[in-house]
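Risk register update: the risk of archive-format incompatibility is retired. Evidence:
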Amino acid sequence: MSENYLRLGVNIDHVATVRNARGGDYPDPLRAAKIAQEAGADGITAHLREDRRHISDADIDGLMEVLSVPLNFEMAATDEMQKIALRHKPHAVCIVPEKREERTTEGGLDVAREENRLAHFIAPLRDVGCRVSIFIAADQRQIEAAHRIGAEVIELHTGAYCDAFAEGREEEAARELASLRDMSTFAYSLGLEVHAGHGLTYDTVKPVAAFPEVRELNIGHFLIGESIFLGLTPAIVEMRRLMDEARK
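Archived output:
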């Protein structure tokens, strides 16, 4: 695989959101994961929340059994989630902030404030072979803290850029994009692998995908929403095309 290749992780959380709205078994997130694999996803992302609002424990069990691409297990830094991750030993664990009242993850983790606790929290995960990623804002202080605690990967929160773009706040979108670009370069200089995600769409993905330091994008809500109109395979294929185009 080319050194310039940009991986696509497809987040299937919101397939489970639709399923849970009716309390049944359909649509099945595992089926979505298998379709995403076949459509060109390089990995599958699933966030097991404390309140189980979408992905369930059974979904994680099933994903570990059926996936032929890596699972990126998103989770809060809680004892319960650590035990689940240590039992499954997924390829990657992404530590994210989590608040019960939020509709989606609203910002990056404050690593600098919880540096000592998080260093001890991620050590057992690294010991069993999980690649530990920290979901953070494009902020130098947070990146330095993530590096100090022993994270191998950071995932930069692209939500502020995407929101500003969607709302027509062009100058703010440009500032957020510049910050993402600068902090990608800074994190790479520390030896961290750089990922990015949250809120990315066909209209916003190419500028982020063009950053040479970024090795992976994780995209979910938009792809699941777009699949209502296009189908999941065409939605993923188009995102893959835009990402590849941006890397040329």
